[in-house]
């Protein structure tokens, strides 16, 4: 998602009233702290006939093997060391198993393999510890929480802790993965994720857990390069925020649309993409639309993505070249392009993001689904009728093929006559 922005962004300066689209941060490595629940309930054997802890250990081992070289990775446990019945003592049981930094894969995997389900579930305290493990900095840090139950030690309440961390402005995202499926646990994990702009996943198999954690680690590698700027789209174009080139994050409710504006000058090309993440249980069929129109509502170009079944993200994109000298030349990379006027206000393009996700029964609708919007404005690509495209249009190619066919026919006919003449003489 955001990693694609590096290749797209142009040097167009932002106007005073335009949000700044993300902050480049190439001086820091991506940082991920995995928080693993090792409480007594992780002994339950209800995931494909395996215990919850063994599924988590195998998945984490696979994730460590696949870690990108630049990622700084750490592991924190909760409920892993205190076997007693003193709740006050057990609720202090969180520790850093492996420090956030360059990973010795054998050492990290060995540390995870030795864990045995033991104690209580102090999630709130573990989240505070993970924030300390990751430290402060200009880029987004990710906490990946794997647990099979709700916090059994509040206070501190983990949802309140997540809100507290978000309010500190330390660019911390908490993604939660639930190994049990009761509503109370699901609601708490959703609350933690929603408070920090993270995602929640209801885990049903070992492969799903492995794939999701790998995806989140990869996402950390994307967001550390460009931290998306928060923006709030509107219902209509006239009062929509004006965006400069960059990467933006927003929240969109189920079946809602959000509108943004991007100024595009004659001779420039707009490139935009959007990704919407279903961070809670959604209905089977879905769709995402990115539509560019002029300020009068005339469609310029659209991009769509649709599917049926589980998905981690739905993405689509568009390209559109502003007309130079009054000639419209819309183009699209991922879907249908529709010609239209650029508008009388100097090519101010309205970007409309719509989704066709629907929540499953009992799933909360607020806050909206997280979306990430990438905007770039570059020099327009060569027009199809330019000199460089003459051969591609077919006329010269057709002439060359015709001449070649004619010459081949004449040569073949001459050779045939010569062979017949020689045969008659002999």
Automatic annotation (TrEMBL):
SMART domains per UniProt: VWA (SM00327)
Pfam families reported for this sequence: VWA_2
Keywords annotated in UniProt: Membrane, Transmembrane, Transmembrane helix
Keyword Cell membrane belongs to the record: no
Region (Disordered): 302-332
Chain segments annotated as transmembrane: 395-416
InterPro entries assigned: CLCR, VWF_A, vWFA_dom_sf
Domain VWFA intervals: 31-220
Species for this entry: Kitasatospora paranensis
Gene3D superfamilies linked: von Willebrand factor, type A domain
Protein name stated in the entry: VWA domain-containing protein
